[in-house]
Amino acid sequence: MPVIEIRDVHKAYGPLQVIRGVSLTAPRGHVISLIGSSGSGKSTLLRCCNLLEDSQQGEILFEGEAVKWRGTGLARVPADRAQVTRLRTNLSMVFQQFNLWSHMTILQNVMEAPVHVLKRDPRQVEARARELLAKVGIGDKVDAWPAQLSGGQQQRAAIARALCMEPRALLLDEPTSALDPELQQEVVRVIKDLATEHRTMLLVTHDMRLAADVSDHVVFLHQGRIEEEGPPAQLFGAPRSERLRQFLSATMAE
Ligand SMILES: Nc1ncnc2c1ncn2[C@@H]1O[C@H](COP(=O)(O)OP(=O)(O)OP(=O)(O)O)[C@@H](O)[C@H]1O
């Protein structure tokens, strides 16, 4: 059973139609990358998957369980708060801007949600948090404040924080875009390691090399629709649509 499945999802911001009937499946252990021009709806689609954004039409299933809605159209909202919480904690998100809590140390950042939201045993969470911080290469930064870390280190702490929730999937929204090129590679390495471990991930990225390296499936969005999708070898090696060809040549020229 797929971790996430969305069927014919539509999303508008007022009169602006941003997602226009997208269906997507994230099987367990697969990495799905969303690529496309700025404004094509990649981040919005990701946020619809974990209900950070409400969609107006279509179905969203988490491990086969359909999200329950009430209302229709722009008034449609999830009907079951407990279901929303369950879905969000199981689909941990990593944001472009890291979003670490500045008043907490790195260790406290990683422990906060498992201890206070999931009510896990603090001693076990602490052991796991230390393990994860070591895994992402910042085991020596547990007592540092976020402001004392480089962007690459902060993003790796954010990934450890997401993993400490023991989610069923990670949703990564342009995790390297806010970083200088030399710091991007530290984060890329961590994402590649996670892909090797067959973590389920949905990744929005402008980094075509990263998408080519880690993805099982790549989705090219254009104006809120899937223009082309398939394995990375096909999308990057033999794109069928003219729009994708143009997008790739413009991206490579940057
Ligand atoms: N909260 C919002 N309110 C109104 N419009 C929004 C909002 N968030 C996004 N949009 C619009 O929705 C469209 C899709 O935005 P989205 O951020 O999903 O695109 P994207 O493909 O992720 O772009 P980028 O690569 O630049 O991050 C854009 O036209 C954007 O201006």
UniProtKB/TrEMBL annotation:
It is found in: Cell membrane. InterPro entries: AAA+_ATPase, ABC_ATPase_HisP-typ, ABC_transporter-like_ATP-bd, ABC_transporter-like_CS, MetN_ABC_transporter-like, P-loop_NTPase. The keyword Zinc does not apply. It is a peripheral membrane protein. GO terms for molecular function: ATP binding. SUPFAM superfamilies: P-loop containing nucleoside triphosphate hydrolases. It holds the Pfam family ABC_tran. Keywords: ATP-binding, Cell membrane, Membrane, Nucleotide-binding, Transport. SMART domains: AAA. Residues 4-248 form the ABC transporter domain. Gene3D superfamilies: P-loop containing nucleotide triphosphate hydrolases (3.40.50.300). CDD domains: ABC_HisP_GlnQ. Its main location: membrane. Belongs to the ABC transporter superfamily. PANTHER family: AMINO ACID IMPORT ATP-BINDING PROTEIN (PTHR43166), L-CYSTINE IMPORT ATP-BINDING PROTEIN TCYN (PTHR43166:SF35). This is Amino acid ABC transporter ATP-binding protein. It comes from Paracoccus methylovorus. The lineage of its organism: Bacteria, Pseudomonadati, Pseudomonadota, Alphaproteobacteria, Rhodobacterales.
